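A quick aside before the break. I want you to see a complete sequence-to-structure record at least once, exactly as it would be stored in a machine-readable document. Don't worry about memorizing anything.
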Amino acid sequence: MIRPVSLHIALLSFVSLWWTSSMRGAEPSADTPLGPGLNITYGQRNELAALNAQLQRQTSAWRADHSGERELGDIEFVIDAISRAGRFQEYGHKKAAENLQRAAQVASQRITALQSGAVPWAMSPGKHVIAYRSAIDQTAQPYAVTLPQDFTVSGSHRWPLYVVLHGRSDGLTEANFLAQHHGKPAPETQTWIQIDVFGRGNNAYRWAGETDVLEAIHDAVRRYRIDERRVVLWGFSMGGAGAWHLGLHHPAKWCSVGAGAGFVDFYKYQKVESPLPEFQDRTLSIYDATHYATNLLNVPLITYGGENDPQLAASTTMRDLAATEKAPLQVLIGPNMGHAFDPESLAKFMAFHQARAENGRREEYDRRTMRFSTYTVKYNECDWLRIEEQIIPYEESAVSSSVDDNGVLLIDTENVEALSLSRTVAERVSIDGSIEFPLTEAAEGRLPQVYFVRSGDSWQLLSYDDSLAFDDPDEPRKRRHLQGPIDDAFMQSFVCVRGTGTPWSAAHQAYTEFCLRRFEREFDQWMRGRVQVVADTDVTKEMIANHHLILFGDPGSNSLIAQVLDGLPLEWDEESITWNGSRYNPDLHAVPLIYPNPLHPRKYVVLNSGHTFHEPQFKASNAQLYPRLGDAAVIRFRPNQNTDFREEIVSGLIFSSRWAIEE
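That is the input. The structure line, written in tokens, reads:
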């Protein structure tokens, strides 16, 4: 594991440099605004920098004397917020300085409480902004928790949990989020614990933003007594878009879902008439909720749109798809309303959730008759079923089930190569008309999941030993968290590796260094995270085992690229890159790709790419945050007059379910 302490030392150095440089030379007076449209003065900026440096020293000192770091996240997200505001001039909010000062004050109070042993601090009724440490990049990520007025630490009562997703706000920062929530009272009528997730900013809860929702829930369950059968998910606007895809991706996680005025598909919402290239078009099925309408059968969902709101189209589109699937979907339309709830509709919307939170989600074994579908094994699970492999990625994989008069579970599949079932869902099962297989006694009755793989037109039940070996196949297979595309690597822990050797191509090296710098900057600003970068000479076996490796350079400059090259589907020498039957000049071309890491096949290796969408897409619309390069692509690059590059996508592709290049 990469320890966060080194990252905080680097952050302290940055803060100290910022503070020192601001004191040099002739600086405008303390009450002079920092710049046009920036609602902070030089004096306030410098005061915040000094406070932040003090907070950093205090947290570093506490960490040096204590083994636990759990509560430090509730302080460190403020340190990151103040530093990030300085890096990206995030002072446009009318109360920017006031909100940052308030955040620093809260962090200072918490470090004092930590030093005196007065923890935990978020256990009284009302709203608290706290944080968890993300497994993606070890940063502290905030969320707001609202504890009801009758909440007590003692007792055995387990609370329903409402997970609320915010809408898009161009002024959204950690400090403004804290000012919006922290210290507010809980509504008198609230009978549940609520978390308002930050979601790493404005990304429609995609990629690391999606992981943020799940990690925040996990942290809330760790801190508070939550009944996990009574978890409600809802959001409005961008939050509605997030509720659509999270609700239908993970239908067994929620007792109800509410989507208000969110978008559900790319083409209609963005008014794009011409189809995208095939390798981009196929990956739209990852986040377009229209592909997952079947899963409305698996979770109660209510949707709302204002009568005069163009985003009502999301509700009506899903209503029509629900009718085709014969799935229930309650649609509320606010009379004469634009992009907002009317009071009556909001009351109905919340009553829908409260009614379902009272009873909770049905036990999975009460739902043996089911229909479930997915377009990627990233989202492969519903109750007792897991789709382990697809035949063709990004086409619908569907499973339907029923029980015959003899209690045999009957399963029909489409585009499924392998699946697993909970052992106790039935005593026997028949798949696609196969012979009956035992479930309770399968694999010697020793594993919770029973695995089946397709063999031609029939199915094979795996033995105990073969089931244990399932996660380590003889050849690469697309499995959950190992299915691509390139952008998927940044939803779990990853490390970027910079080469220290002599590059084969100076032009290629300059381009890949640009790609790494751009990724560091964009992940910092737009995903509110920190890219961990190490030298190739510092990569350890532990890093290889625990992180996806994102490698930048060429086999000459980066020894890790040289090590994995023989296990990748391309050839690379000093003169050319041979890829998919064609040779490319590395002075002009790069081949970014994702593939199972030959050094540790349960993790990814990525060559020369961060996220495949960039600042213009983050600024334009959350719907633009779709994969641009698929699993692999050829990029033609040209340097600009500055340090940037012009880029052209020459080609792209999606690997097959066995990580092969399809003809």
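Two observations worth writing down. Residues 1-24 have pLDDT under 50 and may be disordered. The chain is about 30% helix and 25% strand. We'll return to this after the break.
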